[in-house]
Amino acid sequence: MFSQKRGHMLHGVLLIALFSCAAFYIGSAQVFTALSISPLIIGIILGMIYANLLRMHLPETWVPGIQFCSKRLLRIGIILYGFRLTFQDIAAVGVAGITVDAIIVTVTIIGGYFFGSRVLKMDKDTAMLTSVGSGVCGAAAVLGAEATMRSKPYKTAVAVATVVIFGTVAMFVYPAAYRSGVLDLTPTEMGIFSGSTLHEVAHAVGAGNALGDEIASTTVIVKMIRVMMLVPVLLLLGVWAARRARGGEAGAEGGKGKVAVPWFAFGFLAVIGLNSLSVYLNTLSTPLGIPSWGSDLINYVDTFLLTMAMVALGAETSFDKFKKAGAKPFILAGVLFVWLIGGGYVLAKYLAPALM
Q: Residues 241, 137: contact at Cβ < 8 Å?
């Protein structure tokens, strides 16, 4: 009986892996690489197609395997994401980049949550997920928040959709605005502005490439520092979710009100430390550091695991639930988009130079 259950679970995992392979194949097409649309985004779309068109034709016994991908593999993927970051990145941009990032992340999450829940009267989980996605690092941040808050999959899918739409728009608008001269920013200021306000890492890379090598390096480093801020954000989200659950708040998903400590966030931080040590050892030309091909392999596997998590989340999201969320998440994301452009510009133009 036990082995039969494991077999059914394996079927669900293999199904998600198959969809993830398809997402990688589709994502390799030139049109998607040119738009910097990652396999993660394609994965959640394929998962939603499966949920709404094919799921009724497949055994329900496969569902535990799908849920395993959306929960366990998600946490492993977030931990391995740390291999893309180093503590040396912090030193590269100094106090200016860190300060601007901290202000952007804090104001976006807190302001977005209160605007969404109080002004727009949104579901609080959706408001928080949307704000975290806009404030930190897009889909990866939404996935980390979902794992901490234990919110429903369709809320995650809605939040990811807002990140994709507005982040993609910004990726094209920023280079055009910079080249036109309307922004009047130095290359360093433009790098800080782009890195601190673009939604996804992929968006930062795409916009950076269009802006030139000098701006691209600053953009990506500032963006990666923002990604590191995911750790304290997840810890605070665990406390917030527990308080909501203890208060018996409607819609709270935090279980019995215990603090949902996101242990994977500590794993994420530990991996950043390990990668930082590896980079340092490589500069000393010792054989102890992780070789470049090893880092590339780890990052490839990590992207595949996160894609599986996205497919699984999409597979638990019906269009009916998407409609239930309505237009409010997109209105909130639009307001945050305006704040990121306006607030980020002021911080990069006036605060950052004063701190350099």
A: no
Per-residue pLDDT, 104: 97
Q: What DSSP element (H or E) covers 292?
A: helix 292-315
pLDDT at 147: 80
Q: Measured at the alpha carbon of residue 264, what is the angle toward residues 262 and 265, in degrees to the nearest 5? A: 70
pTM over 0.85: no
Structure tokens at 249: 């708040």
What is the enclosing helix (H) or strand (E) of 162?
Answer: helix 153-180
Q: How many C-beta neighbours within 10 Å does residue 249 have?
A: 12
Cα separations (Å) of 218 from 56, 90, 123, 182, 238?
48, 11, 36, 20, 31
Q: Could you write out the DSSP letters of every residue in 209-248?
A: HHH-HHHHHHHHHHHHHHHHTHHHHHHHHHHHHHHHHHTT
Q: How many residues does the chain have?
A: 356
